[in-house]
Amino acid sequence: MSVKSAVLTMAILCMVSVVPAVGQQSLGDLVAEGGYDWLIGRWQATTDEGGKLELEHKWGLDKHVMLVDFAMGGFKMHGMIILVSSREEIIQVGVDNRGGSWKGLWSDEYGDAVHRMEHTKADGEVQKADLVHSRVDADTMKVAMYAVDGDGYRASEAWGTVTYKRQKGKAKGASASDAASSGGSQETLGDLMAQYGYDWMIGKWFASSGIDAETRVAYSWALDKHAVLVDVTIGDFKYHGVISFVPSSEEVIQVGADNNGGYWKGTWTEDYEGAANRHEMLRPDGTTAKMEHVYVKVDANSYKVKQYAVDDDGYRTSSPQSELTFKRQKATGTSK
C-alpha cells in the first residue's frame, strides 16, 4: 500500500448495514452475571518510581462493549472489550499512540478477571502477557502481570503487581487531541493526512435517504493522531470503531462493534473513484455479511458512499446496491 493510499483510507468509515438484534445476551449481561461490573470506573495507581497509571473502563453501545482507556506518562491506549457470541469469546482490541496494535481474550479464573493480551509494536515486535485483575474492595483492585511464552504458558511468578484506587470524576479520554504528539519519532497518521490533504474528513456528518432514519457519523482524532474514533447512529442503531495504520504490516485497518452484538473488522485500499473499505460483520448467530464501501469526495463539505455486495470468493458486484450523500454538520449541532 502506498503512503497516499494509507493516508486517504485511514480517516474514513462506512455507513453500516443495520441488522436488528433478537434478544441476544450482551456483554453487560455477562459481566453482571459473573460479578465483574466492579471493573467499571476510573482507576489510578502509582509505580515504585512515582509514575502514575490511569485506567478507565466504561460502558458503550448499550452495554454491548466496554471501552478501555489507559495512560502512563506519554503513552496512551484506547481499546474495546467485545462479546463475540458465536465464538463464546470475550475479546479486546485496541491501538496506542506509539503505532502499536493490541488484541487479547478475557476469561474468569477463580474469581479473578484475566486478560491474555498480545501487543504488536510499530516495528513488528510482539509482546505477550497475562494481566490478572483481582478485587480487593469496592475501591481497590490489584493487577498482576505475568509473562507468557511462545507456547502459551504463563510464568509462575508475576513481573509485578500494581494496586489501583478508584477515582472520582471523568478522565480526559482517548479522543482528546494534544497540541504535540508524544508518540515517538515515527510519523503519525495525522501528519500524513495533513500532508496529503485528507484531514477534511474529521468532524460530524449526516445523511438522509428519505426512507430510513437519518444517519449521523462523527470522526474524531485520538491517541495523538495515531487513530480516528468513529461513532455512527442510524435510528436506534449505534456503532463505535477505531481506524488505524499498522506500520509493521503497512495496512490500514478498522475494528468496531455495534449495539446489535455485531463485531466488525476490515481493511482499506484505493479504488479508482476514491477510498474503498472492504469489511466483514460477524453477527451473534455466527453468520457474516461482507461488503465494500467506496467513498467519493464531492467537495469540502460533502461526500458520497457507494455500497457494493461482496461474494464468498471476494468479488465485488459490478454495480452498487445503494448510494448515500453525507453533508458536514455545523459545530453548533444544526444541520443545513
In short:
The protein has 336 residues and is mainly beta. Helices cover 7% and strands 50% of the residues.
- What's the alpha carbon Rg, rounded to whole Å? 20 Å
What best-fitting shape do the alpha-carbon axes yield? globular
Q: Which structural class matches the secondary elements?
A: mainly beta
Strand content: over 45%
What is the number of helical segments per DSSP (H or I, 4+ residues)? 3
The overall average pLDDT, rounded, is 86
Helix content: under 10%
Report low-confidence residues grouped into runs of 5 or more: 1-21, 176-182
Give the strand tally.
Answer: 20
Q: Main sheet: which strands, in order across?
A: 1-2-3-4-5-6-7-8-9-10
Q: State the order of secondary-structure elements, H for helix, E for strand.
A: HHEEEEEEEEEEHEEEEEEEEEE
Distance between the termini: 37 Å
- Tell me about the biggest sheet? 10 strands, antiparallel, barrel
